[in-house]
């Protein structure tokens, strides 16, 4: 070492130390990447759950809207049936009243 020379053993030890440090750093880096991949997988799972929830919400909303439209249609049909019945009753009352008036007026016209 006095002449700034290294022995083969010293060089081998330094290379071994460097190699071990590189291996250790590579393992740490690999562990870091694995942790990052795990986090991304968890984030993907969360996005999947959110996506599933949104799909469920959309399905429920469509079902509620469909039920609402069906209820509105049924209500409209009921309303139209009621209007038809009222109209029919009005026509029957009108015919009955007309017949009753004719029954009273015809004898009066014939006597005069």
In short:
This protein has one helix at residues 8-111.
Q: Unreliable stretches, pLDDT < 50, 5 or more residues? A: none
Helix content: over 70%
User: Taking all residues together, what is the mean pLDDT?
Assistant: 89
The counted number of beta strands is 0
* End-to-end distance: 156 Å
- Secondary structural class: mainly alpha
Please report the number of helical segments: 1
The best one-word shape is rod-shaped
What amount of the residues lies in strands? under 5%
Radius of gyration computed on alpha carbons: 47 Å
Could you explain the architecture of this structure?
- This protein has 112 residues and is mainly α.
- The chain is 93% helix and 0% strand.
- The chain is built from one helix and no strands.
- The longest helix is centred in the middle third of the chain and has 104 residues, at 8-111.
- The chain starts with 7 loop residues before the first helix and ends with a helix.
Give keywords:
112 residues, mainly alpha, 93% helix
Strands, helices and their partners?
Elements (H helix, E strand, L loop, with lengths): L7 H104 L1
């Amino acid at each position: 070492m006095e002449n700034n020379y290294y022995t083969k053993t010293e060089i081998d030890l330094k290379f071994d130390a460097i190699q071990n440090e590189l291996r250790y750093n590579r393992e740490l880096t690999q562990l870091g990447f694995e942790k990052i991949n795990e986090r991304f997988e968890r984030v993907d799972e969360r996005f999947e759950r959110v996506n599933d929830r949104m799909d469920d919400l959309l399905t429920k909303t469509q079902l509620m809207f469909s039920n609402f439209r069906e209820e509105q249609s049924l209500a409209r049909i009921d309303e139209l049936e009621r209007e038809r019945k009222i109209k029919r009753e009005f026509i029957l009352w009108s015919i009955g009243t007309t017949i009753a008036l004719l029954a009273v007026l015809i004898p009066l016209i014939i006597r005069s």
